[in-house]
Each structure stands twice: as C-alpha cells, then as structure tokens.
Design a protein that fits this description.
The chain has a seven-stranded mixed sheet with strand order 2-8-7-6-5-3-4, with helices on both faces. Strands 9-12-11 form a three-stranded antiparallel sheet, covered by helices on one side. The N and C termini lie far apart (60 Å). The chain is α/β, with parallel strands linked by helices. Strand 11 (328-330) and strand 12 form a beta hairpin. It is globular and about 55 Å long. It has helices spanning 45-55, 67-77, 89-101, 117-124, 142-147, 171-180, 205-209, 241-248, 256-266, 269-293, 313-323, 342-358; strands at 32-33, 84-87, 107-112, 128-133, 153-159, 186-190, 215-220, 233-237, 304-307, 325-326, 328-330, 334-338. The protein contains twelve helices and twelve strands. The structure holds pyridoxal-5'-phosphate. Pyridoxal-5'-phosphate binds at residues 37, 89-91, 115, 159, 163, 190, 192, 220, 222, 228, 233. Residues 33-343 form the Aminotransferase class I/classII large domain. Homodimer. It holds the Pfam family Aminotran_1_2. Keywords: Aminotransferase, Pyridoxal phosphate, Transferase.
C-alpha cells in the first residue's frame, strides 16, 4: 500500500524560496558580507545593555501588545496608538498586510524587480502577483502601476527607496499616483531604508498617510537602527487596517529583547544618526568612485548600490567573493552591494575597477 502524503495547498507549489544574502566565507583572510543590506556597526552599548537585561527573563512570554514600544512609536511619530502595529521584522508585517487584504482571485501589484519577499508572501496568500517593470532608469513606473489596477486589486507595494535598485519615488509623482488609486485599494509605502534618503523631494510616508486612509507606512528597525537579528518592524495605518494587522500577527512574535532594544534605539537616535551619516558619506564615495570608473550607477538613496551587469552578474559576484566581499547577485540582471565597512567597500571598488577595464 502506498502512503499518501499530507495534502498541502496547491498555492505553495511554485513559491520561490527567499534567498538570504550569502554569508561571508568563514576562515578566509578577509570576508565581508555586503549581501543583506545590514548595518555594519555593532550594537550601541546602551541597546546591548537593554537586550542583556531583557535576556534575564526570557523564560517569560513577551508583552503581547508591545505596550512600551507602541507608546514610544506613537510619541516619536505623533500618531494615535491604534494606528500602529508591530511584527517580526517589516517582512512579517508585510505578510500580515497581504493576509489582511488578499486571497485567491485577488491581485497584488508591485514594481519588478523589487523586494523579493513580495512575490513570496503574495503567493502564500493564494493571491496573484502583478509585476510592473521598472523604467529604463531603474525607477518605479507609477503610471503603469496605476494602469494595472483592476477591480481585483487589493494591495499595491511601493518600495521607496527600491530594493535592489536604490531609486526613489518623489512627492509629486507619488501624490498623483495615490490620487489615482481607488480608496478601497491599500497602498503600502515600504520605507525600510527611509533614514538613508537625502533627496528632499522624497516624502516621508507618514505625511501622506495622515489624510489618506488607504495608505499604510511600513518601517523597520533592521537597517538604520541595526537590529536586523532581533526581528522587529511596524506599520502605521488608519483603522481598520491597523486593527487587521493586529489580528493577523503571530501571537508573541516580537520578543521582549527586540521590543526593549527598539525602545532603547529610539532613545539613542542621535548616536544612530551619526552612523547613518557616515554610511551616507561612504555611499557617496563608493558611487562617485564607480562613476569615475565608467559605470552607470543609479543615484542611491539607500544603504546599497546597484550595478546592472546583465549576463556578467555571476562572474562579477564570483570575483567579489574571491577578493573577500560577498555581494548580492540577481543572475542575468545585476548586483546589489551593501555599503559596509570602509575596508570592505574598498575591496568592492577594486574588483569593480578591474572588471570595468576588462569589459
Ligand atoms: C524593501 C524592504 N522591505 C522590508 C525588508 C524587511 O526587513 P525586516 O524584515 O528585517 O524588517 C527589507 C529587507 O531587506 C527590504 O529590503
């Protein structure tokens, strides 16, 4: 008798697996990880201390309602408490957003290429992805995205700045787009990298959400705040969207370590801002060096740079790895390199220079 396997949902059949940034090789003379858009700085002493204190009671469940963190966020961003929801990283909140809005037969629109979790979480919900190609300048094509809306559209992601191309959507074009989106379609402004933006034509999503109930702002503590390993992100949205997010959250998903570290980080913003400034300065240095070498590099407003290398992507990534830095290749398209330690960035630039000369 042949045993039958458990019945799994057909929607899972072709779900692409999330590819994490490759770790740096262990044991090599030099090995820097520039593949996951992490913050290269170690935790601040005060933040580390808050985590150590919280660790003393991890035999207990965390505060389910994230009370302290929610209060801190409400005052920091001047939003009502019931407009906030937290989750296990902003990718967790993004999944809650899709689960709250879309199921079989529904459509989720996003630019492509963009954050690779969007297709995964859409498909897991049983909904259909509608990918709208980026423009030739690696930017969101908001007119085409608005044209792609149908009566099945439930959610639209706008990744600002866009991962992996580092480009931004500016205020006027975003407002025009939001005005075109029907009020019963949720627009999620994914602002995972907002702290790295220095172009003042780019809006802060919180300004846009205030008088637009169909706009939700997604933020994370993983990038500028340096808490990637602790998994905490949040959304700001009007009711009933925020209430739906609280319903779809995994109970106790955000650990007490993460909650306390996030509060400590919000209270250490000056020190964190200095680090972000240093990374922005490094970003400028890296981009200018690449342009000096002859590369076309989008104006990055994030903590990474993008090179469209096409068929040469895999070779370029392999050359980086041999030299001691791991970048993030998207085979056949291009590669994304996170701005890391100066030494790592220098190694990356040397590989890029050599590669450019060979083209
Ligand atoms: C655009 C974007 N959104 C969300 C995330 C998720 O980050 P986290 O789940 O660590 O908050 C990432 C991470 O790379 C990202 O690039």
């Amino acid at each position: 008798m042949t045993e039958k396997s458990p019945k799994l949902r057909a929607a899972l059949d072709d779900v692409p697996t999330y590819k994490p940034g490759k770790p740096a090789a262990a044991g090599g003379p030099l090995a820097f990880k520039l593949s996951s858009n992490e913050n290269p700085y170690p935790p601040l002493a005060g933040v580390l201390e808050s985590v150590a204190n919280a660790a003393a009671s991890f035999n207990r469940y965390p505060d389910l309602a994230c009370t302290g963190l929610m209060a801190e966020l409400a005052s920091r961003f001047d939003v009502p408490l019931d407009h906030l929801a937290t989750g296990t990283g902003s990718v967790g909140v993004a999944q809650q957003l899709v689960q709250s809005t879309a199921g079989p037969g529904d459509e989720v629109i996003y630019a492509w290429r963009s954050f690779e979790a969007y297709p995964i979480i859409t498909q897991i919900a049983g909904a259909t992805s509608v990918r709208v190609p980026l423009t030739d300048t690696e930017e969101h094509d908001l007119d085409a995205m608005a044209d792609a809306i149908t009566d099945r559209t439930r959610l639209i992601f706008v990744c600002n700045p866009n991962n992996p191309t580092s480009t931004v959507v500016r205020r006027a074009e975003l407002e025009r787009f939001l005005d075109r989106v029907p009020s019963d379609v949720l627009v999620v402004l994914d602002e995972a990298y907002i702290e790295f933006i220095r172009d003042d034509r780019v809006p802060n999503g919180i300004e846009l959400y205030r008088d637009r109930p169909h706009v939700c702002v997604l933020r994370t503590f993983s990038k500028a705040y340096g808490l990637a390993g602790l998994r905490v992100g949040f959304a700001i949205a009007h009711e009933p969207v925020a209430a739906a997010l609280r319903k779809t959250a995994v109970p106790f998903g955000v650990s007490q370590l993460a909650q306390d570290a996030a509060v400590a980080s919000l209270r250490s913003e000056d020190a964190l801002r200095e680090r972000v400034e240093a990374l922005v300065a490094e970003r400028t240095r890296v981009r200018e060096a690449l342009i000096g070498q002859g590369w076309t590099v989008p104006d990055s407003q994030a903590n990474f740079v993008w090179l469209r290398l096409g068929e040469r992507t895999a070779d370029f990534a392999a050359a980086c790895e041999t030299a001691g830095v791991v970048v993030r290749p998207f085979p056949g398209e291009g590669m994304r390199a996170t701005i890391g330690e100066q030494e790592a960035n220098d190694i990356f630039l040397k590989v890029a220079e050599r590669f450019r000369k060979e083209l």
